[in-house]
Amino acid sequence: MNPWKENYAPEDLEIVLCPVCGDKHKTHITIEFSLSVVKCQACGLLYVNPRPRDSEKNYWAPTRADMEKKYGAIFEGRKAHDRDSLYRSHLDTLARYQPTGNFLDVGTHCGFFLRHTRGRGWDAEGVEPSPVLGELAREKFGLKVKTGALESAAFPVESFEVITLLDVIEHLHDVRAMLKEIQRIIKPNGVFFIKTPNGTYNYFKHVIFHNLLRRHNYDCFDAREHVAAYTVPTLTRLLNETGWQVIASMPSAPVQTYGSHPVKIVGRNILYTVARAQHALTGQPGPFATDIILLAKKSSPLL
């Protein structure tokens, strides 16, 4: 059953302040599935307000039968995951900054990313809120995965040289609590790796499809799933304010889902080529990067 709705009633929603700067002043951008996407007037963050209550939990309780049906061929080794090449690329990037040590993946899902850490010099484990997904990661891939939220996992202080957050931060309702806990458990010289959809690209799509092509039903911000659409500047500000220093930012290769229309695949690859060229010239991923990667280290302890 699809946990996301076509329309949301007022009782399904909660009004929030900007997740980055806490300001209440905002500019309306668009409506997706009755959800309002806004832009913070103070820091520029694109976020959903009002947003669905507890939308993170839509990912916590899939049935085992659903997951077996969806990923059975991957579990059995008969098919590659459509993000395998991305996962290997992310680990190649990480290895340039921190090639060894204790490695924690936050929001491990079924372990599709974490399994690629094997043989690379890290002692890797994960944490996953969904009991079903965590069980599958342990059972199908033999991974070390704790079930529960990161804040309740009770990892010791300064346990990890590497912590990864792939396609997770855009779902978080209390993002500062997560960043505070990650800072507590990462070592002083540890590397924090974040990959998330690029809010600048989301807005670029919005301008093209909503404003130019008048496709008002086109889902540009994934508002039912993503409570915020971070850009390099807004995510950098959030990290700086929670005790982190960004050491690198770059475009990520696009997600190419098996079965996508060939035109979409070619189009995403062209955009990625342009994004890489812009990054090489300016140091910024720019609006053509579908996804962005930021790497950070501790700058100071949180007060």
Give a quick rundown of the structure.
Helix content is 31%, strand content 24%. The protein is of the alpha/beta class and 303 residues long.
Give your account of this protein's structure.
The protein has 303 residues and is α/β, with parallel strands linked by helices. Helices cover 31% and strands 24% of the residues. The strands form 3 sheets. Strands 8-7-6-9-10-13-12 form a 7-stranded mixed sheet, with helices on both faces. A 4-stranded antiparallel sheet has the order 2-3-4-11. The longest helix has 21 residues, at 262-282. Strand 7, helix 3 (131-141) and strand 8 (145-147) form a beta-alpha-beta unit. It folds into 2 domains: 1-52 and 214-229, no CATH class; 54-197 and 233-253 and 289-298, Rossmann fold (3-Layer(aba) Sandwich). It has helices at 64-75, 84-97, 131-141, 175-185, 199-212, 232-241, 262-282, and strands spanning 13-14, 26-32, 35-40, 46-48, 51-52, 101-106, 122-128, 145-147, 160-166, 186-197, 228-229, 244-252, 291-298.
Number of strands: 13
Shape: globular
Portion of residues in beta strands equals 15-25%
Give the helix proportion (percent range): 25-40%
CATH architecture label name of the largest domain: 3-Layer(aba) Sandwich
**At the first level of CATH, what is the class of the largest domain?**
Alpha Beta
The major beta sheet can be summarized as: 7 strands, mixed
SSE map:
Elements: E1 13-14, E2 26-32, E3 35-40, E4 46-48, E5 51-52, H1 64-75, H2 84-97, E6 101-106, E7 122-128, H3 131-141, E8 145-147, E9 160-166, H4 175-185, E10 186-197, H5 199-212, E11 228-229, H6 232-241, E12 244-252, H7 262-282, E13 291-298
Parallel strand pairs: 6-7, 6-9, 7-8, 9-10
Antiparallel strand pairs: 1-5, 2-3, 3-4, 4-11, 10-13, 12-13
